[in-house]
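Q&A log
Question type: sequence-to-structure
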Amino acid sequence: MTDPFHDQTGRASLGGARGLAAVRLGIGLIQGVLLYLLYRSGALHDALNWPATQPPLFGALVLAVAFTPVMLLAGVGRLSVKALAIWGAVAAVVLATLGWHDAAQQVRDYFYPPYLRFPVFAFAATALFIAHHLIVPAVAARRWIADFDDYFDTAWKAGVQLVLSLGFTGAFWLLLFLGSALFQVIGLEFLSDLIGQEWFSIPVTCLVFATAVQLTDVRAGLIRGVRTVALMLLSWLLLVITVLVAGFLIALPFTGLDGLWKTGSATALVLSAAAALIILINTAYQDGREDNLPPVVLRVAVRVAAVLLTPLILIAVWGLSLRIGQHGLTPDRIIASACALVGVVYAAGYGLAALSPFWKKTAWMKPLERTNVAAAVLTVGVILALFSPLLDPARLSVGDQVARLKRGAVTAAEFDYGFLKWDAGRTGQRALAKLARSSNADIAARAKRAQASTSRYDGDQVAPPSQPRISAWPKGAVLPAGFDAPVASGDPRFACSGTEDCVAVLRDMNGDGRDEILLATRFQITLFALGAEGWRPEADYRADVCAGPKNADHRELIKSPDMAPVAAPWPDLKLGETTASRQIRIDCRPPVAVNP
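Response status: OK
Response body:
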C-alpha cells in the first residue's frame, strides 16, 4: 500500500512529516480541550452545567469526542482530506447516535455523567477500530474489498502503534509524578498542584498521545519490525493454547459438562478460549504470503486450532441455549449470543480452511482470509445493531422476561421485578408500570412494591428464589423439613444454589436441648437457629487464618469429629440500652518483645 507521507524506505519526508505532525498535534489539542469542557460541565453532580444537564446529548458528545479524534489521528496521511472528512463525519454521527441511545435509555436519577455504560465504550471502540481498518485499505485500493495483505498490514501496524502510544502516554505521566515527588521533597508544590488541575491534565494527555502517534509513524519500518517480533512471539503461544484446548475437549467425555455449567460463566469462558485461538491463529498466518509461512509445527498447530474452534463454539451455544431456556433473556446473554454468532462464522470458515486440502488444492489456509473479512464486517454490524434501537438488549430481554411471566414459565413470586426497576433502564420501568396495572393482584402488588423501592436490595424480591443444594453431615443425617426450601438472595442459603454445594451439621450450640444448624460454604460457617419465623441466621464463623491452614475449605473443616462450641475468650459489652458485640482483630504478626 502506498503512503503519500512516506518514501520507499518507510521514512516520512521532511515536508510531509512536519505537516502531519502539525495536523496530529492540532487534533490532539482540540480533543483535549473538548474533553475538558465536557468534564467541567459534569464534574459536580449536584451542580451540573449544560450539556451535562441533558444526558442523551452529553453521552453522545462524550462517545464522539473520545473516539473520533483517535480515528482521525490514524487516518491522517492515509486518506485524502476529503475521504478523511467524510469518514470522520460518519464515524462521529454513528458514535453520537450510540451514545445518545444508551444515555436516553438510562434512568437519570441513578446515573451520573458520562451516563454511559462500560460495554458501550468497549464495543464502540472495537467497532470503530475494525471499521476504520476495513475502510482505509479499500479506499487506498479504490475497491470495495482490498487485498487481505493490505488489511493485515494496516490493522496490525495500527494495533502496535496504539499499544506503543498508550505506553508512551503512561510513561509520560509516571515521569511527571516522579518529578512532582522530587520537587515536593525540597518543599516545592507547584508541579503536583499543576498536574492535579484538570484544565492541564486532560489536554496534555491528549496532546502527548497525539505526539506518540506521530513519533511511531515517522519510521514505519521500525513499527513493522516491532510488529514482526510481536507476531513471532505470539504465534508460538498458539502451541500452548492448542494443547490446552485439545486436552480440555478430550477430557470432556470422561468428566461431563456439569462442572463447566456449575461455574455460572461457562459461555464467557469458552468464548474467551475461542477468541484466544482466533487471535493466535492470525499471528501465525499473518498475511498469508509465501515468504511469511511459519515453521511446519506452527502450520500443523494452526490447522488443529482451526478445527478445535467448532466444538468450542458448539459448547458455548449449547450453554447459552440452556441458560436462556431456563431463565430467559438478559442483556448479558444477548451480547453473548451476538459474540457466539460471530464465533460461528469464524469456526465455519476456519474449519473449512483447515480441511480444504481434502477436496480442493488451495494455498495453506487461504480461505481464512475471506472469513476474516466477512467476520469483521459482521462484527461491526452486530455491534451497531446491539447498541442501537434495532436490537437493544434491554428491550429484547424485558420483552422476553415479561412474556415468560405472562405464559407461566415463571411465577409471580419468582419473577425478578428488581431487574425491570434497576437494570433495564426506561424500557424496564415502563414494563414495570404496566405490570403494576395488571389484573393479576399478586403481580400488581409485587410490581408496585418494586416501583416504591429505593435500592436494588429493597423489597421482597432481589433475585428469583433458588433451590439450595445442601448435604447433611454425617452421611445419613436428615435436615429439618423446609430448611432446604427455595430462598431469595440475602439469605446465606442462597449461596448454596451457585456453583458449589453446602454442608450442614445439626448440633446443640447453646445447651438448650434443641439442635441448631451449622451451614458451611467454602469460606465460612453460618449458625441457624429455629424461631417463630422459621430458621434464621444468627452468627457467622471463620477459621483462624493465623493458626489454621491457608484458604481452608470450611465444608471440610465442619466435618471434624471433635467439632464443639468453645467459650469466647472475651465477652460482649453492655452499654446502657444497647450491647456492643466484640469484633475479632486479625494480626498474624508475632508479639514484639519490649525491653524493660
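Response note: The radius of gyration is 30 Å.
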